[in-house]
Structures are given as structure tokens and as C-alpha cells.
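Two records follow; treat each independently.
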Amino acid sequence: MLDIENYDISINSCAFTKCDEHWNWVTAKQGFKDYDLWFITGGKGYIEYLGNKYELHEGKCFLLAPNVQYVAYHDIADMLSVIHIHFDFVKNGMKAYPFGVIDSHTGSTNLIIRSLEYVMFLYNIKDYQRAYIWFKAVLCDLFGECASANDGIDKGIHEVIYSICRVIGNSVNIPNLAEFAEQYSYSVSYLGKMFTKITGMSYTDYVNHTKLNKAKVLLCSTNKSLSRIAEKTGYYDASYFSRQFKKSTGISPGKFRKNSTGLE
């Protein structure tokens, strides 16, 4: 088990790749400068490094270390699909290189895929802090021990909370906590307590945080009116949306849009 708890995480890039029939991967002899998590979501192939050859298949994962040359290829009859996340371990504000190459395998493939998809979602909407927290939890689950990984919480409730977070992230009409509690046959108090323990935020704070992040993306990437953005993020009232946005960020939605895009 790796002692991941003592390091901070900084994600540099993340993506999902569905490899085509011509795909193969050969790095420079010195490899790359950061760590790269590979999680195989489907297909079959091989990766070679340090004189060894390892099979790639669904559920297989690798912590690929810097400064190592890698060669990878796959079976064109069963082409690989891979989630890959480049990142650094950080300690005392400096990049650290505490671990070599490590491979692992999980039986909880669907849970890990959903968790990594959520990490990528958070990273892509620039919610970096939560992306780091969730990614570190995945690394602990795959390769090491963290305080949160040893809290005695059953994996079943973890999966429930991840499912609730996906619904929150993908919905306009977000169910309240009582509705989720009824759906999953938990008491409201227990589900709320577990939600806070696993995500680090109360259910209400998490919902508000997610809605505001959606609003930020729409303000920066579209010319939709505030009324339309309020509607698409579940506020339905532009005035209330504007008040909540300013309360959270310190500036109005219009000012945020102007600062981000140069547009009124």
C-alpha cells in the first residue's frame, strides 16, 4: 500500500481515449515529467516498461511514473479504451516523486470508472479543489491508504453517494435529500451524515456549489441571458440566481461574464 495521504495532488490533464486500429504508444527514452494514471475501461493489449511486459484489460490500472520509457499496443480485434490522468504529487509546495511504476486491478470497475468520470467533469469545469479530493480518494482506493479510505464506511454507501453526485451534476430538477433517502432506503439523517463525510460538504452546500459551477460554465461559454441560465441551472428566477451568485462569488453574474470573456 502506498502512503498517499501525506501528499497533495495536482492534476495537469485528463482524458478518455478510445484507441483506433492504428494506435500504439511509444514514449521518449526519458518518459514524461509527471505521473500518469491509466485505467483500462475496455479492450485488450500490452504495456512494456523496464524490461517487463504486462497485459492490459478491463479493470487493470497503472500508476506510470516519470522518467521511464513505455511502449503500449493493443489487439485490433478488441481495441483498448483508457481513462488517463496526468498529475503530480506535491509535498511542502514542491513536486515529489515518491513512487515508481505500480500496477493494480480492481473488481469495482464500474465504481472506479464513474469516479474518474466525475473527476474529469470537475476538472473540466475548473472545480479543481473537488477534482483533487475525489482523485486522491480514487488513488487511495486503487493503490494505497488514506484516512478517508480507512474510515470504516461500507463501499455500498460510497457508491450511493457517487450516484447521487452524478444525478446532481446532470439534473436541473435536483431531488432533495429526503427523496434520495427514500430511493435508497436510508434515513435522511444517516444519508446526510454519510454525504458530508464522503464529499466533505453538506448536501445543500454541494448542490449549491454544483449549480453555481454550471452557471459559471454557461456564463463563460455562451451568450445565454441570465434568465435562461437561471432556468438551466435550477433557479428559475433570474433575480434570486443573481443574488445567490453574488453572495457566493462576490461579484454579479454580468461582471463575472465580463471578466471572463470581455463581453457584457
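The next record belongs to a different protein.
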Amino acid sequence: MIDWDDIRYFLAVARGGSVRAAAEGLGVYHSTVLRRIAQLEEHLGAQMFEKLPSGYRLTAAGEEVLELANQMEASSHQLETRVFGRDQSVRGLLRVTLAPTLATHLLMPDLADFARQHPDIEMDIVSSGELANLTNREADIAIRVVYDRKTLPLNLHALKGPELFSGVYMSRDRLAAWRAGAPDPIRWIVISMFGVPDWASEGEVRTTGVPFRTTDGEAQIVAVRQGLGMTTLPCFVGDADPLLVRVPGTDLHMHGTLWLLTQGETRKTKRVRLFTEFVSGRLAAYAPLLAGLSISRD
């Protein structure tokens, strides 16, 4: 009989295109992946991959196995979610995925409150920019910023939360220096993969230097605190930071809508329902902060 774990390793190599990618995705050693693939090939009596300079390519036999392996994986996930959906205990593992900024600057105190209220629930918080696949049980609940409702996966249950707005911010000290006539250049601070949005280019303060780029949101926030220039931030980040202030003359812009996403049978479990009700209530209370209405504009 074929070992399902061997199939998992096979799928990881087929999808990642290399043993290294598969090992990183599975969190195992390179040698473990090679051993599992060799074990599967020995069991089936056929070579699954052709090793090329560019990576691993499926053989004809491997292509046939891939189709069946995908079916096996789908059946395994379906069985798992149905059994999980019948579990009504307030204990066990609960995996929640959300963007790092939401976890760090908004919801971590609430996640901690929920954990204290339910000490038998093991919390696994996946704060990442990557979109976890709820159908494959990579997470039980996703808290996502969605820009277009039409992009919501049709196979997921979606609960709408508050709207999220962004503004243009700079450090209070840098704004005071600019008003006093300081000649230092003011830069746009941007995350590398994004440019400066058109809506953020109008205001009393104009940039005079070359851009300053970072690769993540936390570095972006630290850079603007240091007085390098100005940047766009969600209002719940910028307004809550005592070192930052909105740039005079700039408007707010709708960044998206927060949605709570759950999958099929999974959302029927008591711990998922408890968390969904809990966090949706907290998000509703944060609606003014998320919309940029919690402070007076400087």
C-alpha cells in the first residue's frame, strides 16, 4: 500500500519544482524529501521526476501519479473537514491567519484575551502576507483585507467587517521642522513592491528627495518615525502612534474591507464559532479607528 506521506512529498516537489522548495515548504531536510521520493518510485516501479538544471520535471508516469495524488489530497481534506466540523469541544487547535500589521498593531491584545478566556484552545496565529488556503486546512479562519468583494472565494463563508481607511503620515518632529523652514529633503517612504498611490500625492507638504524603499510594513513605520519623510499607512496604525501625524492637506482613502473567512464544515465547530463571534465584535468596536474617525485632524 502507498504511504500517504510519500504522496505529500511527491506533491510538494511537483508543485515547488525542486527538492529544496519542497523541503522548505514541508519544514524537513533535503535528504528526507529525496528518501521519500525514492521510496515512492521503488514502490511504484517507475521514475517520477527527471532532474534538469532548472529543477525537477515530471515524467510521463509522474504526470499520471500527479492527477491521482491531487484526488487523494482533495479526499483527505474533505474527510478531515467533515470530522473537524463535528467536533464541538472548546479545546484543540485553532489556526488563524491575518496580515502582520493587523496582528501587531490591532488585534494581538484581543487574540490574547481570547486565549485567556479559552485556555484549552491552542492558538496558532499565522501572521503573513501570503494567503493561506482554507480549503486545504492551512488555516481555520482568515481575517483578510479585501479590495473587491467579487474576489472572495465562492467556496468560503464570508462575514463582512468594518471598512479600512489609509492616510498620509509623517513624524511630528519632521512636520514641525518643515514648518520652521528646515531644508532637509522629505522623501516618500514606500514598500518596494508598491509605488506612491495617486491619491496620496496632494497635500501641503511636497516631497523633495528620492524615494526611500523598504520591504515590509514594520520597517516602513520605523522609517517614518525617524523623520525621513512621509508615507501611507492604515489609519489604525498612523493615528495610534504618538510620534506620527497626518500630513496637512491630505485626505483619507478607503483601503479595503475586513472580512472573516471560514470554510464549510470547519465553521460549524464550537471553537471556530466562538472565535468568529468574539473577533467580529472586537472589529466592530474598532470601526471608528479603522475609518480614521477616532482623532481630530492636526
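Discussion point: The first strand starts at residue 49 and ends at 52. How would you locate this feature using only the C-alpha cell line?
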